[in-house]
Amino acid sequence: MKLAKIEIVEGDNLGVYVHNGKSAVITCLKGGTKELAKDVAMHTAAMKPKFIKREDIAEVDKEAMRGVFAEEVAKSDKPEAIKQKILASKIDTFFKEQILLEQPFVKNPELTVGALVQKEGATVLRMIPYSLV
Q1: How far apart are the first and last CA of the chain?
Q2: Which of 108, 132, 97, 93 is nearest to 40 (CA)?
Q3: Where does CATH 3.30.479.20 sit in the chain?
Q4: What is residue 47's predicted lDDT score, i.e. its pLDDT?
Q5: Which regions in the chain score pLDDT beneath 50?
Q6: Residue 15 and residue 27 in contact, taking contact as beta carbons nearer than 8 Å
Q7: How far apart are CA 116 and CA 38, in angstroms?
Q8: What kind of fold does domain 9-52+103-133 have according to CATH?
Q9: What does the pLDDT read at residue 133?
Q10: Contact present, 112 and 95 (Cβ < 8 Å)
């Protein structure tokens, strides 16, 4: 076995979830509880978000996705105003799927992860995925 990285992980509450012995996630919360941190880690392992919040997405990545979806929408024979609405919807949907705090929580899909941590008085500081290759 070869270690790829070693990190110091800090936070008020740390949650660790290991899935099938091959992948793991550590979440670091400010506030909340250890149980909440573990639930967020489990959710992260299952849903594999790339970002914690929308502001974490680099502008270059946002522009790249806009370009991809704009090309797709441009092929449509819809009026321009409708195309713009479709484009905005596609971009919003794509990023909601990639952002931890905007995803429906796996244990209660009526609640987003963001609403859950806010309800518990917590903030997600980091999510660190690990996997064996």
Answers
A1: 10
A2: 108
A3: 9-52+103-133
A4: 94
A5: none
A6: yes
A7: 13
A8: Tetrahydropterin Synthase; Chain A (3.30.479)
A9: 65
A10: no
